[in-house]
Amino acid sequence: MITIANKLLKLTTATALAATALAGGVQAQGVQVSGSDAFNLPDDVTFVVEPGDPNVRRATARVNGNIITGTDVDHRVAWILAAQDIEIPESEVQRLRLQVLRNLIDETLQVQEAAAQDMAVTPEEIDVAYRDFAASARGFTVAEMDAFLASIGSSPRSVKRQIQGEMAWDRLLRRNVRPFVNVSEAEVNELVERMNESRGTMEYRLGEIYLAATPTNRDQVMANANQIIEQLRQGGSFVAYARQYSQASSAIVGGDLGWIRLEQLQNPTLEAAAAGMVPGQLVGPLEIPGGYSILLMIDQRQIGMADPRDAVLSLKQISLSIPGNASQAEAEERGAAFAEAIQDMQGCGDANLRASAIGATTVDNDEIQVRQLPEAFQNLMLQLNVGQTTPPFGELEPGGSLRVLMLCGRDDPEEFEGPSPDQIMMSLEDERVNRRAQRYLRDLRRDAVIEYN
User: Fold this and answer.
1) What does pTM read for this prediction?
2) What does the alpha-carbon distance between residue 157 and residue 72 come to, in Å, rounded to a whole number?
3) Cα separation of 254 and 180, whole Å?
4) Which GO molecular function annotation, any one, does this entry have (predicted)?
5) SS3 breakdown of the chain: % helix, strand, coil, rounded to 5?
6) Which of 26, 284, 320, 423 could join 419 via S-S bond, C-beta 3.0 to 4.6 A?
7) Looking at residue 310, what is its pLDDT?
8) CA-based angle 168:266:371, to the nearest 5?
């Protein structure tokens, strides 16, 4: 199997051959060319045989002799669909099947390459990773995970196949790519200096789905990106879509780029988009060199500054239920009495007794971060002093209930110093590894023998 060094040598040789062919006016075979008109394709095309529907492809394929069956595709699709909170349209399912087949082909190539370089993932390693995945993803034992997968039309073999592909690819990148990626101390120090100068400015935790595109397929890739965005906005799982569709190395962690500065994106389009986003916002598709990106703003914080939302609160919830047989007038009367009783309370030490006197109940929580509260409550709680409450909320009607939250204490967060130089270096290395990994996978696809049945 060709190593990274050999592939680079092969590319250099191909470039030299191309130059010789152009100089001599002869036609070379196997030459790598680029550009939108590299193939000199006509604008008006007459096909000798009419092309079929590009979205219809038989599921069975043979990749360098290894078979991918229709059942393999079915089981992977069932696993992905089970992770969604919404019903996927049939047209999207068909597109998903095509993408799954591509992913299975890539996984097969990655596993084959790892085996050829004596880095094969053993069945024992796969079983351990599968057990850990069952526990972390679902809180299941292996037997429970097996039963769940069977119930949704998938199989343990399908999940283990994906685990094997991810582990094999990680090993290949660690040995054949990452050692040849260098980030100098000068680069890191320059970035640290820039961060210190911008202390108090924002740092972002972003999710990304990257779809590679060429000039010839950019319209189709953009259409696919728009369909993904539509599904995400309807409640689809960003992590699931990133794992299945993204062609960036971050796909293995659901597209999570971690905490980064905008300049670490190293792309003006992505930087400008992220600068205007708020937590929970989705934007895209954004056209960047090599393809399209979909961004999700997971969270934000100020560099070198404590995030108030990391404060740990001690809260008391006071609730009053309104009987279902009460009239609306009686409900409003009980609501007014509840609001008055809340105003008369003298802190958390007085709350339980006064709540009991009006038939209300209390629940305490001494360890809840502000960021864990619904967004509507976060800024409100940060403005309260100990012993104060939120305005009453709930349903002021028969059968409804009214509640308030009382602040009983707050532990403010410590100052955050921002990412360490080691973290910055790792982030820069990951970005460069990602670029080389894409080229590596393209080489594997180009050298593969793939037969569709």
Assistant:
1) 0.49
2) 9
3) 25
4) peptidyl-prolyl cis-trans isomerase activity
5) 50, 15, 30
6) 423
7) 80
8) 80
